[in-house]
Amino acid sequence: MAANTAKAQYFDIEARQRFFNRTFWNRFHPTASDQETSHPPMSEVSIVASAFGVDAIRRDGHLPWAQAAAHAGAAAFEVRRELMSDEAAAPDALRALGNAIRALGVWIVWSTPATLYTSAGALDEHALRHALIEARACGARFVKLQLGGFTGDADGQRIAACLASAGERADGDAAVRLVVENGQMKEGGTLTQFTGLFDALTRSGHGDVLGMTFDIGNWLWAGEVPLDAARLLAPYVEYIHCKAATGEGARRFAVAPSADDGFVTPVLASLPRDVPRGIEFPFDAARIEQDAAHYVGWLSAA
Question: Within 10 Å of residue 239's Cβ, how many Cβ atoms?
């Protein structure tokens, strides 16, 4: 009888402990599985040079603003060829710039307005090779081109040959990765072009020869729905440009996502979490450093 009473008391204590855990302890002490589900991994964030202002980049050069990006906590900095003089884009100058930026602890995206395909639909091998030379000189991890006039022939074998001949980056690391971006024009900005590109590359056995820079806001200029594009193109996305837009038609302007953002974050949720995200909207010029740090933190966790 005494043994049965002791056993009953033991189980009564266990039951009370389980009740306490469910009711109080677990509210403030999440389990390991709770932490994994409630705190997704942080994404690397890049700041696109133009976010600091086109005039500022042209006036000061890229390096001072790469320093500002590093201070804001960015993992990468996107250098824009269209904001540089030919002298600043010479190989020796690019090597010096790349060395200085990497010394800050950030890696580089080399962005050029050149297109991978001509308006006639042919691969622009000269533009690709030139972009690769510039990207290698500054030690960029990514080289980003616009898609251009792709019409069906991806020419994946020639792209692969160009990349193979480019070799290692100036910093001695792995070869630069080619990514193509959806632009704001119908040519190079439609969903059909991008699905057609990746289908053609896959059929030819060159599905891994390049990836995509998915620009969330640019789809609006081209009359496409960003969320629809994200659902179809997510497997190919390796870099994301993040911006909202204001205005209509061609009179749209890039802006920061609002505090109650319902545009950028749903699209991000449909894209890979482990690819870098680039800030491509203008910071508030009156508080540029605080704005940069705020949005780096916001975008890494969004």
Answer: 24
Which residues lie below 8 Å from residue 268, measured CB to CB, with a gap of 6+? 216, 240, 242, 277, 302
CA distance 26 to 211: 43
Q: In the prediction, which pLDDT does 172 show?
A: 56
C-alpha–C-alpha distance, residues 302 and 300, integer Å: 6
Model pLDDT, residue 24: 36
Give the closest residue to 288 by CA, choosing from 30, 106, 64, 35.
64
CA distance 88 to 60: 12
Mean pLDDT value across residues 258-273: 91
Contact 129, 96 (CB under 8 A): no
What lies within 8 Å, CB to CB, of 5 at 6+ separation is none
Beta-sheet strands, E only, within the chain: 45-48, 76-80, 107-117, 142-148, 177-181, 211-215, 237-242, 244-246, 253-255, 277-279
Question: CA dist 286 to 52, 67, 241, 283, Å?
Answer: 11, 18, 23, 9
What are the tens digits of pLDDT across the range 106-137?
A: 999 999 999 999 999 999 999 999 999 999 99
Average pLDDT over residues 84-95: 97
Predicted confidence (pLDDT) per residue in 21-73, tens digit: 433 334 334 444 444 445 667 899 999 999 999 999 999 999 999 999 999 99
d(CA 108, CA 122): 28
> Rounded CA gap, 82 and 204, in Å?
33
Structure tokens of 160? 């692969």
